[in-house]
Amino acid sequence: MLGKLIKYDLKYSARIFLLVHGVFLLACIFMRLLFMNRIDFEAPAEKYITLITLIMVVAVFLLSAVTITTALLIALRFYRNLFSREGYLSWTLPASSSEHLLAKFISGYLIMAADILLVAAGLVILLTGRNIVDAYRQAAPELEPLIGSTLGVYAGKMVLFSILFGFASVVQIYFSIALGQLFADHRVLLAITFYFLTTVIVQILSSVLAVITGLSSGWFVSDNAAFNLGQYTDSLYLIMGVLMAILAVAEYIATNYIMKRKINLI
Amino acid sequence: MKPILECRRLTKRYGSFFALSDLTLTLERGQIVGLLGPNGSGKTTLIKLINGLLVPTDGYIAVDGCAPGVETKKIVSYLPDQDCLGDQMRVREAVSLYTDFYSDFSTERAKKMLDALEIDGSLRLGALSKGTKEKVQLILVMSRDARLYVLDEPIGGVDPAARDYILRTILTNYNEEATVLISTHLISDIENVLDHVLFLKEGRLVMNETVDEIRTRYGKSVDALFREVFRC
Question: Which residue ranges in chain B fall short of pLDDT 50?
């Protein structure tokens, strides 16, 4: 039953997901071939700085659009399939509420992980032209001591962290929607409010943890700043990872309870 | 054998409003039951409770001896009073979905009924008229070999010719061991197929009789009695 639920979730999210990410990847290829590959980094900076800035603005815009669309896709599938009129079919399938939640969690996580990988692939396409690699080689002796590794390893860690803890974002979305369902009216508005509230709570807890562990006290900036910056990032990933994992487990348990005991499809 | 549906002091309350209040009833197998009452009388609330779409505020409900859950969903075939299939879905995908999830679903029976109505399986549900979409949903629901069919307003939104088709579909496709619970306020259209009627008024059960009892005791049709009981 779980496999079937996941299959249908992925099937009905696939079309928009593939379309949006296909457009993103094509835009990255387009920008690399038409603009990035033509930049001469040997020339004075004034000659290409405007173009680089423009490309980066467009890339950040596209990246944000793709990421937000993915989050919306996951949220909409969960809401529509379980709490709108489609819920009349979903909740009468011979599956338990726990199976529904687990299926949504797995499918949501797979979509989120695929999104992170495709966004990373888009950036790799955009930023690995020969001219950029050559320019990076020249800057590497200054940059690498600062980040404690090669840029590839540093970015790889960031992608790995995002994929490993992407589940926390998925659970946070589901938890907020489930909380909204506890109310008789304005359920969507309340779900959005709960999402922002939980985000603020995560931010506050992260700040508190950063103070407790000394990460916010600036200890990492010392004479040997390069080594410490890399260490700082690793420590940050570890602390944030533990915090997100604990919160995600608590939110998952609460969502499961709401779906089991409190669902009223009005 | 356990009754197919049993409710004891079943109550559903929203704030201070009682959608269903102290409802006690037992439904036996092998009959067609009309769940009748004006708008807001609690028909859909009862149906949602049977299907586990609402959590009761108080009381007990069991389908074939089990509280609504995975086991009861395997034996209850439910037609909601609204469109529950995604508009992007094609008719044949809806058939595949039922085939995948319900072990008692007969794909052959569904295809035969769709062919009889000349409904193209490749069409998206969003492209169908309201009446045709309702027919597709009914075909899916009646293509199951369920023990309890729960049909919420199956004839409410369709023309009289389609009503005849729907009633014929119900009558020719349900197993005689099964029970069919039909909610409607179009009583005259379905009166002839009913064995038993339940009248709900303001969330309470005010009548629970066989159609024959009503005709002998009151000397009236169910429709006439309904108009008398619920006169405004």
Answer: none
> What are the structure tokens assigned to A177, written together?
């929607």
**Block residue for tokens 């080689």:** A137
User: What is the pTM for the complete model shown?
Assistant: 0.88
Selected residue of B101, B124, B140, B148 to mutate for chain A interface (largest A Cβ count, 10 A)? B101
Residue range of the domain that includes B59 = 5-84+147-229
Q: State which residue of chain A sits closest to B51, comparing Cα positions.
A: A92
Asked whether the ipTM of the predicted complex exceeds the cut of 0.85, the reply is yes
Q: Is residue B114 part of a domain?
A: no
Instruction: Give me the DSSP letters along B50-97.
Output: HTTSS--SEEEEEETTB-SSHHHHTTEEEE-SS--S-TTSBHHHHHHH
- Residue B63 counted as domain residue: yes
Give the number of domains in chain B: 1
pLDDT tens digits along B163-179: 777 778 778 877 778 99
Residue to test with chain A: of B47, B51, B70, B78, most A Cβ within 10 A: B70
Q: Which two tokens stand for residue B46?
A: 């009862």
Report the CATH number that the domain containing residue B161 is assigned in CATH.
3.40.50.300
